[in-house]
Amino acid sequence: MHEWKSGTVDLKTEQDNTVVKVWLDKPLAPGGKTVFDIRFTTHWTYEAQRRMKLFDAWGHKHFDGTHWYPRIAVYDRKMGWDTQQHLGSELYGDFGCFDVSLDFPADYVLEATGWLQNPQDVMPDELRKRLDIGNFKDKEWDSDPSTITPHDTLVRKTWRFHAENVHDFAFTADPTYRIGEATWNGVRCVALAQTALQRLAERRELQRQDDQSAQRLVRPVRLPQDGGGRCGTAWNTRC
User: Residue 10 forms beta bridges with which residues?
Assistant: First the structure.
């Protein structure tokens, strides 16, 4: 972390590995609120292969972003502030609302927690049709991905997401992603898959056989704020 402010005031901080203590410039009364402006850098590495990861995908960088931003610690009514180090285990985090802008090169395809707020800016109808996974059903296994949007270092897109009452905000980004959709009991389900790994024609029969057992095991989560409902994956950042 490079800077921690409240308004125009630089706040005193004390960092102990993954935990940071911050001194407010004035007391925060019960029921009150404050706003922090935090400037930080998140590091992706090829060596770390947990949920937060970066790896090579046919010459492209694949990003999975989880636990990638500073989080306010939980104030537990029994134990007080949670000051346990967050190393090698899941985080103990509170629920909250997120408005996140993700700035990526224009050839990347993203999904993230919540609802995309500017679909026509980043995924217009014509591009969505070209990315449909059905277009690649006969593609050879492990063959090089097709180029849908040529990579241009000067052209970027900003994907804006909004999420409510969630435990974390995660995202995934890859220029080789293709998009599949299906409807289950009136719920729109969206899936992303790397195109080079798909030979759907050879798997249709297996998928048909598995559908009945899978429906007994998997149930999508309806998100009522999205109108008709949607199930899927489950700050500002530039990659």
Answer: 5
How many domains does the chain fold into?
Answer: 1
Dig out the tokens for 6 from the structure.
């409240």
- Pairing mode, if any, of strands 96-105 and 236-238? parallel
User: Could you give the 3-state DSSP secondary structure of residue 127?
Assistant: helix
Give me the domain span that covers residue 233: 68-238
Percentage of the chain beyond pLDDT 90 is 42
Does residue 73 belong to any structural domain of this protein? yes
Query: What does residue 211 show for φ and ψ, rounded to 5 degrees?
Result: -55, -45
C-alpha to C-alpha distance for 84 and 40, rounded to whole angstroms: 21
Distance of CA 197 to the CA centre of its chain: 21
pTM (two decimals): 0.79
For residue 156, being part of any structural domain is answered with yes
Q: Please, what is the Cα angle at 200 between 126 and 197, to 5 degrees?
A: 85
* Confidence band for 222, pLDDT divided at 50, 70 and 90: low
pLDDT confidence of 94, banded at 50, 70, 90?
A: confident
Q: Is residue 47, in this structure, part of any structural domain at all?
A: no
φ, ψ dihedrals at 25, nearest 5°:
-80, -15
